[in-house]
Amino acid sequence: MKKTVQQKLADKKYKIPNALVYKLLYKLVVKGSLEKKYNPTYEIKDSPADCKGPCFVIYNHQSRIEYVWLMHACYPRRLNFMVGYNEFFRSHLKFILRLAHAIPKRNFVLDLPAMKAVDALVKKGAAICFSPEGMSSISGHNQPVVNGLGRFFKKYSIPVYIVRLSGAYLTNTKYCLDERKGLIKAKAELLYSPEYLKSATPEEIEERTNRELTHDDYLWNKEEQISYDGHGRLAHNLDQLCYVCPNCGKEFTLKGEGDEIGCRECGFKARLDDKYNLIPVEKADKLPATPSAWFDMERKQIRDMLHNNPDYVFEMRVKLGRLPSYSYVTNMKTSIPCGEGVVIIDKEGFHYEGYKDDEPTIMELDYEHIWTFGMPLDASYVSFYYNGDCYDLFPESGYAIKMLLVLEEFHRLMANKWKRLESEAWMDE
């Protein structure tokens, strides 16, 4: 019987990437082509190449193309990348991911096949590279690490290296898929020794990892003032991220076009310059300092609203996408259409009520089992896992950020397993 793509992934045996293949990828693709597009610089304080046994390499996940500077920062050490499970179903990525012996990982859920692959690779002396945040930055700053990271590190107690990235989000934002050449800085160093991991508690490891990964690209460039080539589209789709007008307070009345974002209701207007500075144009007295601060303002509003009204119910019509079983997703998509319905988020959890493959379907998760959505490509839609299967949710409005913020802040109100970062503690004051 023909195996599904899911079965093939579950049955795969993982190895350290072939030395010759890895060298060719590095020399021809990374050095010969991609680095020239992005202008990265490197500071190597400690290198995984100097580690003779197995190790982990972690990084602050800012964009979709970090493998470029991660490969350079760690070369000639060959990395086994941990990659989102859904990426292995995309036709343009399947070959390179298979060649690189990348590990498929279901985001934000327990994934036993992925942990089995990690275990086998550690025993083979591999360097396994992954982002503890679980997905690339939405707003330009980092998110909390996934629950269980401390226990995971303690289980293996092998060296953990960190590659700190700056400028990568400004090169590849979440709200616009354009590539904007400017400057990317990558700094590699040893973060945790085996001795530290054995002595620290899981909670201490997670708290410290969150602090070590804390970074905001917009704040960083407030100091650096590096120019990025936005092709005259620096604010294009910025309203996907910044959906609340800071002047009139209305939602979904903003439009980001060219280098400007404006409100069709009150006439508010602001401009992004090539250093990502927000410049007031019209009725912009309440303009946030940065797009990430704007995003945080929206989160704070959702947090306060839910604390004042825990019976709030969020509803939005969506189209549903799923992963295929015997084929791959084409045209740069992340799923195939399979239905439509309504997403409901309330104090009990997440609910999808509608159709899947022409069958009436209800999918429900409480806050012990869901605390955020994935955002696999841009800020216009989200993803989640249910019974091990990945689904995309495409809001008919085209706006997914409010749905994500409501889910996350309801989780924190009702369960709070995925705790807020120290840098965001002001939201609870």
UniProtKB/TrEMBL annotation:
Q: Does the keyword Electron transport apply?
A: no
GO molecular function per UniProt: acyltransferase activity; DNA binding; DNA-directed RNA polymerase activity
Query: Keywords, A to Z?
Result: Acyltransferase, Transferase
Entry annotated with the keyword Acyltransferase: yes
Fetch the SUPFAM superfamilies from UniProt.
Glycerol-3-phosphate (1)-acyltransferase
| Coiled-coil ranges per UniProt | none
Q: Which GO terms describe its biological process?
A: DNA-templated transcription
Residue limits of the Phospholipid/glycerol acyltransferase domain?
49-162
- Protein name, per record: 1-acyl-sn-glycerol-3-phosphate acyltransferase
